[in-house]
């Protein structure tokens, strides 16, 4: 289904204001449908991959972490930045092992999303594993904080209390709780 041409925004290019391995700030030169051309700030971040691990006792592998950017503690799923040349699925598995010491297997993709597409470009890829094995201790002590198998029956109340931090964790958990899973994830 096509959109009428008058609804399209024209991108003329972009210029970099700040760039490092973690964050890039650009100004995008655009002309929106109203015809008034201007530059809009956009923050470009790397792709993030997260893993939802649910065991045979209906528990979710989660981390209790402090996030200084928002000065708060919250429960999160393991995950992190996808390295150059790495698949998002491999990154989600790697990050889970590094942060928890548990290695997921039989991984399936739950989906992907952009949490703030109006100003921030940060693709999030979500994965699910119902099979995992503890292969050691976390290798990234800074990221590990508290590792806990949280009963699925407690997840809704954690979300309602504002104790689940991060859009990726919320989207993956809510999708799982809704039961709307891709065929290979059921």
Helix content range: 10-25%
**Range of strand content:** 35-45%
**What is the spatial order of strands in the main beta sheet?**
1-2-3-9
| Total separate domains | 2
Q: Care to count the β-strands?
A: 11
Reported for the largest beta sheet, the result is: 4 strands, mixed
Q: Describe the global form.
A: globular
CATH class of the largest domain: Alpha Beta
Order of helices and strands: EEEEEEEHEEEHEHH
N-end to C-end Cα span: 30 Å
Structure characterization notes:
The protein has 186 residues and is α+β, with helices and mostly antiparallel strands. The chain has 2 domains: 5-45, no CATH class; 48-185, Alpha-Beta Complex (Nucleoside Triphosphate Pyrophosphohydrolase). The chain is built from 4 helices and 11 strands, in the order βββββββαβββαβαα. It has helices spanning 88-100, 141-144, 152-160, 167-178; strands at 10-19, 23-31, 38-45, 48-53, 59-67, 72-76, 79-81, 102-113, 120-121, 124-134, 146-151. The strands form 3 sheets. Strands 1-2-3-9 form a 4-stranded mixed sheet, with no helix packed on it. Strands 7-4-10-8 form a 4-stranded mixed sheet, with helices on both faces. A 3-stranded antiparallel sheet has the order 6-5-11. A hairpin with a 4-residue loop joins strand 5 (59-67) and strand 6. The chain is globular, with a radius of gyration of 19 Å. The mean pLDDT is 92.
What is this entry, summarized?
With 186 residues, this protein is of the alpha+beta class. The chain has helices spanning 88-100, 141-144, 152-160, 167-178; strands at 10-19, 23-31, 38-45, 48-53, 59-67, 72-76, 79-81, 102-113, 120-121, 124-134, 146-151.
């Amino acid at each position: 289904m096509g959109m009428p041409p008058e609804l399209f925004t024209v991108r003329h290019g972009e210029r970099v204001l700040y760039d490092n391995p973690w964050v890039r700030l650009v100004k995008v030169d655009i002309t929106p449908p109203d015809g008034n051309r201007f530059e809009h700030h956009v923050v470009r971040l790397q792709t993030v991959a997260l893993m939802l691990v649910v065991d045979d006792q209906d528990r979710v592998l989660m981390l209790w972490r402090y996030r200084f950017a928002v000065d708060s503690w919250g429960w999160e799923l393991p995950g992190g930045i996808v390295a150059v040349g790495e698949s998002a699925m491999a990154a989600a598995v790697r990050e889970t092992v590094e942060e928890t010491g548990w290695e997921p297997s039989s991984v399936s993709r739950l989906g992907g999303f952009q949490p703030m597409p109006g100003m921030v470009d940060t693709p999030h890829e979500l994965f699910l594993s119902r099979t995992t094995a503890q292969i050691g201790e976390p290798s990234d002590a800074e990221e590990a904080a508290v590792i806990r198998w949280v009963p699925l029956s407690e997840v809704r109340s954690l979300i309602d209390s504002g104790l689940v931090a991060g859009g990726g964790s919320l989207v993956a958990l809510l999708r799982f709780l809704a039961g709307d899973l891709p065929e290979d994830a059921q």
